[in-house]
Amino acid sequence: APALTPIQQEILALKRERNAVILAHNYQIEAIQQVADYVGDSLGLAYQAQASKADAILFCGVHFMAETAKIVNPTRTVLLPDLDAGCSLSDSCPADRLAAYKAANPNVYVVAYINCSAAVKALCDVICTSGNAVKIVNQIPADREILFVPDQNLGQWVAQKTGRKMRLWPGSCYAHVQFTVKALEKVRAKFPHAPVVAHPECVQAVRDLADEVCSTELMVKFAKEQTAKEIIVITESGMLHRLQREVPDKTFIAGPTDTCACNDCRFMKMNTIEKVRDALKNMTPQIELPADIRSAALIPLQRMLDWSK
Ligand code: 13P
Ligand code: SF4
């Protein structure tokens, strides 16, 4: 393991002092991943948050992920290093617009990708992540008409995998839609033997060129199974830190966009090592949720955790 910097050592000391646990998403910067107790995808992080017995959960990810931790484990203090770390996908489905849609279409069965606010979760029947979306949708009664929010790309992929017809909310991840066929073909020409793994938030034309489409956690499994030495990874570039640590004998090539050699999510990258230290030092900023929203959001989230086992 690499030697820790003074600030990283300070974080580990504060973590013990506060009886805190650090949960980090795969897209966080390497220095944060190195001090985390657990690094994973949205699904793994939700299970970890629910099971945590620590006094405080310092969540290194974006706002909806920290909110999810608070919903499933409300008696813990949940800290997010920067409250402005949002998500363009989550923002594409405001709760008032979903409520209006439901009022006009009262019979739809609403499946929400976990990348949405607690207020949106509170309006839904079941939640899914990219890691379990197919499994969740397959358990929805066949006679129900499904509305999938907020990601039209993940929704389209799940519809194709399950054969279920679904209405799709017109949202998308600003970062993942920047991957294009043109950029992917260029990198493939450079590494012709490298298999391609892509996140389902990518557009269909990009997904269709990939050897595997899956959640960030399943990318680790995919990488371990490959015989090829080089793998092209079409997702946010923080993922490469996790892959390189767990599969050190392979080389990972970040998926490029038309304008950049790799692709960062500006929200995920709002968390810095200094903000992580300050959050533990000051025990702020904390995630607070109105009790009615929390208890309404827990129903579809708990359904997901149960159906996903
Ligand atoms: P995963 O659950 O696959 O890690 O995805 C989270 C996310 O925000 C993708 O952009
Ligand atoms: Fe949201 Fe996209 Fe960033 Fe994931 S990568 S947190 S979906 S904006």
From TrEMBL:
Residues where [4Fe-4S] cluster binds: 87, 173, 265
Pathway(s) the chain acts in: Cofactor biosynthesis; NAD(+) biosynthesis; quinolinate from iminoaspartate: step 1/1
HAMAP family: NadA_type2
SUPFAM superfamilies referenced in this protein's UniProt entry, alphabetically: NadA-like
Binding site for iminosuccinate: 25, 42, 113-115, 130, 199-201, 216
Organism per entry: Nibricoccus aquaticus
The protein, known as: Quinolinate synthase
Cofactor: [4Fe-4S] cluster
The encoding gene: nadA
Organism superkingdom: Bacteria
Claim: Magnesium is one of the keywords in the record: no
Metal-binding as UniProt keyword: yes
Enzyme class: transferase
